[in-house]
């Protein structure tokens, strides 16, 4: 979750040392991760890796516009070239396959495949067809996200997600994609992280399109969820064999003290980060506490919308990164109280694997209809350097190992979790943080586009090989 990075940076925990970690990366013998049907893969997103923003008829997206505004993205970076994946996709697929990764989660750039009148762009469509066909040939399970934040600019010019019509345009886009790509997609996710699109895009303006108003955030969220709900039956009709779902980022909020006010603050934090999205999807209503936090921001909801939004899902994608320690702000809400002496990543995010386990087990209790879960993103940024052709990303190895252990614990506690995707396959354009923050298990040298497999990816590959050999 590309969030405020104002939190303090701390030194790595002393437990994170070289050597020992590498040896102990492999999960214990009783771990559910040894099950062959637990899918292990990696994820990326179109704007973060593709580049080629002006090629083959691609139209501008809100991220082209936003990143061109001075001060919006660190160092003035943009996705114009990114990892040049649009041209290097074949080698990238080879790399994915060579690591033995079983699943690949990618996203489609809406402005690449359709024009403002809804006319398909063949060249853009062909790119995804070639890519998905190759992945299929390699036996890689494909998870395709329709919307990972690169809204066509022409739709933003008409109000973007504040305009209800965008939800209907999204359903048209889902219709085209599922007619064109049926048979090559194992799982469709309508949206990636509507919280980020709605809140960071329209609530605090840290992301494109850069608007900042709580009322906008709740209305944008409603239209995003409506877009999802309208798209699901279309995907089902056009591509019945695939799974249909949505990807949500979730946040753990813990209280800074035992006081009732801080406990309430932590609750409200989780309402704002989790229930705001999951309640409409799984209960068919918005959590009323949200409007205690943001009084007077109720979105305009038309008859039937909540039913559309809460249509059954085949899976729920969960993205998890960190926890936030909060206290009451003395009024309706919460404020962050960064903990000292805890392990943090290059983003300033606290490493807190228990949060993943606790949220998942909590959701199982709260939502009786919780669909099967895939962890569609988890990972961390570190300032990785290539030394003698190697990248020793020690903290990431430890991070992945501990989060996979948290997933195992949640499975053993009864949560139906079917897979895990590393964020990310390779270093890429990290939104408002540009290229400085490196989330990949593969290092990218942006001056040469050379990819270097990091030690973490080697160890994941080693585990996957061992698991295959045992099956
Ligand atoms: C998530 C986004 C993903 C990436 C990670 C670090 O919020 O879905 O694109 O930026 O955070």
From TrEMBL:
GO MF assignments: beta-glucosidase activity
InterPro entries attached to this UniProt entry: GH (IPR017853), Glyco_hydro_1 (IPR001360), Glyco_hydro_1_AS (IPR018120), Glyco_hydro_1_beta-glucosidase (IPR017736)
Coiled-coil annotated residue ranges, if any: none
Reactions catalysed according to its record: Hydrolysis of terminal, non-reducing beta-D-glucosyl residues with release of beta-D-glucose
Record: active site: 377
Keyword line: Carbohydrate metabolism, Cellulose degradation, Glycosidase, Hydrolase, Polysaccharide degradation
Pfam families: Glyco_hydro_1
Enzyme nomenclature, EC number: 3.2.1.21
The family this protein is said to belong to: Belongs to the glycosyl hydrolase 1 family.
Name under which the protein is recorded: Beta-glucosidase
């Amino acid at each position: 979750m590309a969030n405020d990075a104002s939190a303090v940076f701390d030194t790595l925990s002393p437990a994170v040392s070289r050597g020992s970690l590498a040896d102990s990366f492999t999960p214990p013998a009783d771990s559910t991760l040894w099950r062959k049907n637990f899918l292990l893969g990696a994820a990326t997103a179109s704007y973060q890796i593709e580049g080629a923003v002006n090629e083959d008829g691609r139209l501008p997206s809100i991220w082209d516009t936003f990143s061109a505004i001075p001060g919006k993205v660190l160092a003035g970076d943009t996705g114009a070239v990114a990892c040049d994946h649009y041209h290097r996709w074949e080698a990238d697929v080879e790399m994915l396959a060579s690591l033995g990764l079983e699943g690949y989660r990618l996203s489609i750039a809406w402005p690449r495949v359709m024009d403002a009148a809804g006319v398909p762009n063949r060249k853009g469509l062909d790119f995804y067809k070639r890519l998905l066909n190759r992945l299929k040939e390699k036996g890689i399970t494909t998870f395709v996200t329709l919307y990972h934040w690169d809204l066509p600019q022409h739709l933003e010019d008409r109000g973007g997600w504040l305009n209800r019509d965008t939800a209907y345009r999204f359903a048209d886009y889902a219709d085209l994609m599922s007619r064109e790509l049926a048979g090559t997609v194992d799982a469709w996710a309508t949206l990636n992280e509507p919280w980020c699109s709605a809140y960071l895009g329209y609530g605090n303006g840290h992301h494109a399109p850069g608007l900042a108003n709580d009322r906008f955030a709740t209305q944008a969220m409603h239209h995003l969820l409506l877009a999802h709900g309208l798209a699901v039956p279309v995907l089902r009709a056009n591509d019945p064999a695939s799974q249909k779902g949505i990807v949500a980022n979730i946040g753990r909020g813990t209280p800074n003290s035992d006081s009732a006010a801080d406990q309430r603050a932590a609750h409200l934090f989780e309402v704002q980060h989790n229930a705001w999205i999951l309640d409409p999807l799984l209960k068919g209503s918005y959590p009323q506490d949200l409007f205690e936090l943001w009084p007077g921001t109720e979105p305009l909801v038309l008859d039937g919308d909540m039913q559309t939004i809460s249509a059954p899902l085949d899976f729920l994608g969960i993205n998890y990164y960190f926890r936030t320690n909060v206290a009451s702000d003395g009024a309706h809400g919460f404020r962050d109280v960064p903990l000292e002496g805890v392990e943090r990543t290059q983003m300033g995010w606290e490493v807190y694997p228990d949060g993943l386990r606790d949220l998942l087990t909590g959701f199982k209790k709260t939502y009786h209809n919780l669909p099967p879960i895939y962890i569609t993103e988890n990972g961390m940024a570190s300032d990785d350097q290539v030394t003698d052709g190697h990248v020793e990303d020690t903290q990431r190895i430890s991070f992945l190992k501990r989060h996979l252990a948290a997933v195992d614990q949640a499975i053993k506690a009864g949560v139906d979790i079917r897979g895990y995707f590393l964020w990310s396959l390779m270093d890429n354009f990290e939104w408002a943080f540009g290229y400085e923050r490196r989330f990949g298990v593969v290092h990218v040298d942006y001056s040469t586009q050379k990819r270097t497999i990091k030690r973490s990816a080697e160890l994941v590959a080693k585990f996957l090989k061992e698991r295959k050999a045992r099956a």
